[in-house]
């Protein structure tokens, strides 16, 4: 008797063999490495221009690109070396026409020897040399507009206008972008706003241990149990230290401690003027004038409120973002880049510039808000900075701009 064949019911049928192997799905192409960029600045001593230069150089190097900086040098060279960034020391800080002309040749040699893709200038005197070196070598020229440079007279405006000659010009705030368009007629299509960025890993209240800020409190003789009102900034008149002193005097409170932090950078006469103003107002028991703090996150941890009292508009105002990142409410003057950073009554307060009465009233509000309101403002400030003013965002947007410039510089394949 013949056995019936097995039906194979319940088993999945195998597809017929065709003799051809299926092709694996193609992996998405990797993005090209960032372009090779030469940044040109006067020097590498201290300040927002220098800090931004180092941040971008480090980001390029960490992304696998070759990164170069040319300047007259300074202490911040150390950070470049650690990141594997090559620095060329030359007199980029000179405004002597002969030296500036010689710098053109020096930069040309670097561009050709290291096959630089983009030349990025961040200050006027070195920008003139970089502009002609980029033209002679056929490389794209990019600039960053960092300030509202004095524009009195035709010659000065012509000199400043070099910062608008890039195929792209970066403005560090909407305020500076408006200035570049209104004063220099900069084409909006060539203008990009990339705000300065704060290192939110460094300026993070959770990352600052008590062992960092307690010694500062002892050094500055900060009393326990009273609100600390802090004004950080180099000692120069437009930063508003005299307005701050007047505001503290008008406040008339002895149960607070005010601290002004900043180096006089050789302005000894101005420091003496401030000290005399403190004595004349009999504020010696309330107000401290201390030197620049090397550890600003630790210093900001000691503050209950941070003040930016600049009488002239800040191009950006990095201390506002740093204070916000540390969860400190900020009182700032209502102009310039401060308007883009302070959310009024949410992360801080805005007051008219040069008005000690208004500043005193704002300080009074800041030191008397209850714990719940302070906590909400602190959280809002941290979130606002992390979302809008981080170093990571600044670097990503700048490198994206470099790629955009390179894409336009490539010959069309069509």
Q: Could you explain how this protein is built, in words?
A:
This protein is α/β, with parallel strands linked by helices. It has two domains: 178 residues, Glycogen Phosphorylase B (Rossmann fold, 3-Layer(aba) Sandwich), CATH 3.40.50.2000; 184 residues, 3-Layer(aba) Sandwich (Rossmann fold). Helices cover 42% and strands 13% of the residues. The protein has 15 helices and 13 strands. It has a seven-stranded parallel sheet with strand order 3-2-1-4-5-6-7, sandwiched between helices. Strands 10-9-8-11-12-13 form a six-stranded parallel sheet, with helices on both faces. Strand 4, helix 4 and strand 5 form a beta-alpha-beta unit. Helix 1 packs across helix 15 and helix 8 packs across helix 13. It is globular, with a radius of gyration of 27 Å. The N terminus is likely disordered.
């Amino acid at each position: 008797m013949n056995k019936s064949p097995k039906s194979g019911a319940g088993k999945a049928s195998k597809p017929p063999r065709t003799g051809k192997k299926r092709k694996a799905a193609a992996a998405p192409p990797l993005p090209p490495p960032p372009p090779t960029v030469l940044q040109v600045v006067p020097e590498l001593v201290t300040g927002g221009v220098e800090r931004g230069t180092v941040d971008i150089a480090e980001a390029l190097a960490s992304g696998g690109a070759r990164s170069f900086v040319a300047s007259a040098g300074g202490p911040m060279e150390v950070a470049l070396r650690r990141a594997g960034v090559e620095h060329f020391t030359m007199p980029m800080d000179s405004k002597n026409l002969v030296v500036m002309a010689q710098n053109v040749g020096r930069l040309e040699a670097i561009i050709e020897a290291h096959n630089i893709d983009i030349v990025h200038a961040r200050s006027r005197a070195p920008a003139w040399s970089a502009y002609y070196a980029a033209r002679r070598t056929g490389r794209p020229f990019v600039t960053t507009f960092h300030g509202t440079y004095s524009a009195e007279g035709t010659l000065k405006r012509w000199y400043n206008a070099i910062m608008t000659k890039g195929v792209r010009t970066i403005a560090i705030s909407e305020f500076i972008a408006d200035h570049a368009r209104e004063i220099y007629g900069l084409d909006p299509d060539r203008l990009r706003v990339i705000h300065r960025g704060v290192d939110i890993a460094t300026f993070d209240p959770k990352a600052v241990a008590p062992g960092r800020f307690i010694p500062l409190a002892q050094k500055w003789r900060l009393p326990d149990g009273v609100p600390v009102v802090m004004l950080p900034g180099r000692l120069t008149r437009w930063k508003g230290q005299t307005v701050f002193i007047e505001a503290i005097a008008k406040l008339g409170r002895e149960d607070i401690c005010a601290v002004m932090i900043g180096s006089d950078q050789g302005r000894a006469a101005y420091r003496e003027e401030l000290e005399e103003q403190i004595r004349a107002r009999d504020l010696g028991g309330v107000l401290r004038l201390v030197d620049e703090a090397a550890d600003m996150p630790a210093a900001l941890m000691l503050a209950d409120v941070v003040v930016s009292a600049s009488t002239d508009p800040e191009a950006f105002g990095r201390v506002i973002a740093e204070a916000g990142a540390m969860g400190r409410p900020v009182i700032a003057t209502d102009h310039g880049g401060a308007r883009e950073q302070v959310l009024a009554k949410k992360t801080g307060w805005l007051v008219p510039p040069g008005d000690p009465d208004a500043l005193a009233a704002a300080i009074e509000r800041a030191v008397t808000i209850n714990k719940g309101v302070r906590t909400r403002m602190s959280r809002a400030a941290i979130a606002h900075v992390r979302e809008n003013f981080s170093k990571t965002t600044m670097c990503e947007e700048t490198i994206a701009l470099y790629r955009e410039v390179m894409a336009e510089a490539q010959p069309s394949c069509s």
